[in-house]
Specification:
Number of domains: 2
CATH class of the largest domain: Alpha Beta
Mean pLDDT: 95
CATH architecture of the largest domain: 3-Layer(aba) Sandwich
Oligomer: single chain
Radius of gyration: 23 Å
CATH superfamily of the largest domain: Formyl transferase, N-terminal domain
Shape: elongated
Number of strands: 16
Order of helices and strands: EHEEEHEHEHEEHEEHEHEEHEEEH
Low-confidence stretches: none
């Protein structure tokens, strides 16, 4: 049995699931995505990754600014959907929208619920040193990621996991899981659900640009996780000689293996200890900067930044 599916999503994370459904036996009747936004130097309007794919596949695309109006809700109901699949869409779904499809709305959420409900679960899993992440498919209700679970699968985080690598792994996992779920729904006419656990609820709040500012009083491990979690967005940054310096890649280092003179070693946290990019952090820990990006310049390794005069040994990162 082929289901009439509506898809609601916006970024690259959602794209994998849309492709999988479109290539399956089910029919993608419509796509809802955030409106095109200005990007690049010319600030030209660019469609979201989901809309770009749907346009190429000749799938009707809708991008209302809100789902609260009666006209938008009536238009959504007129699609006569069996089910709607939602993945990082970006708008709150009112009850009228949630109830319109025959089997409701299924959300692909990039965490092991109830841990990391909210907008930034991938980033928080890395930043907070989780050893596992995963994907939960849930039957949506009016709460924030509070609906009952349909299926949940975990994966182990690599020691050097980044937001980019985890994003791609979870997107692929979610795509596999939604196809499995749709097949079961088509076969059985319903999805078995389990209420979320009441214990262990945490929230991954929407990230802000200031979340990327380094506090050198933190330990090297904490700052390293911040860098791996927040690149490419909102990005991690500090200041050198009054100029912003993005930190793209770094790693904790063993302080005992770093040969520096006493005058530099006794400096405050944030001091660049040597030409190898070692920076003194809180608790006597040391972080090694590997790739950085000075303001208005291309990304470069630490040695190039040092040779270019953007940073200096003994300098202080604010």
């Amino acid at each position: 049995m082929s289901l009439r599916v509506g898809f609601m999503g916006t970024p690259e994370f959602a794209l994998e699931a849309l492709k999988a459904i479109d290539e399956s036996s089910h029919e993608v009747v419509c796509v809802y995505s955030q409106p095109p936004r200005p990007k690049g130097r010319g600030h030209k309007l660019q469609p979201s990754p989901v809309q770009a794919y749907a346009d190429n596949q000749n799938i009707p695309v809708f991008h209302p600014e809100s789902l609260k109006s009666e006209d938008v809700q009536a238009q959504f109901a007129a699609h006569n959907l069996d089910v709607a699949v939602v993945a990082a869409y970006g708008l709150i779904l009112p009850k009228t929208i949630l109830d319109a499809p025959k089997h409701g709305c299924i959300n692909i959420h990039a965490s092991l619920l109830p841990r990391w409900r909210g907008a930034s679960p991938i980033h928080r899993a890395i930043w907070e040193e989780d050893t596992q992440s995963g994907v939960t498919l849930m039957q949506m209700d009016e709460g924030l990621d509070t609906g009952p679970e349909i299926i949940k699968r975990a994966l182990n985080l690599d020691e050097r996991e980044t937001a980019i690598t985890l994003h791609d792994r979870l997107a692929a996992l979610g795509a596999d899981m939604i196809i499995e779920t749709l097949e079961q729904l088509a076969k059985n006419g319903q999805s078995a659900v389990t209420e979320q656990e009441k214990d262990g609820v945490t929230y991954a709040h929407l990230l802000k640009k200031d979340d990327g500012k380094v506090n050198w009083e933190e330990g090297a491990g904490e700052i390293d996780r911040q860098i791996r979690a927040l690149n490419p967005w909102p990005g991690v940054w500090t200041q050198s000689e009054g100029q912003r310096l993005k930190i793209l890649e770094a790693q904790p280092a063993n302080p005992e293996n770093i040969a520096t003179n006493t005058a530099i070693k006794d400096q405050l946290v944030g001091t660049i200890l040597d030409k190898h990019g070692h920076v003194e952090c809180g608790g006597g820990t040391v972080l090694q900067l590997l790739h950085v990006q000075p303001a208005g310049k291309q990304a470069m390794d630490f040695a190039s930044a040092l040779n270019g005069g953007y940073i200096k040994v003994g300098g202080f990162l604010e």
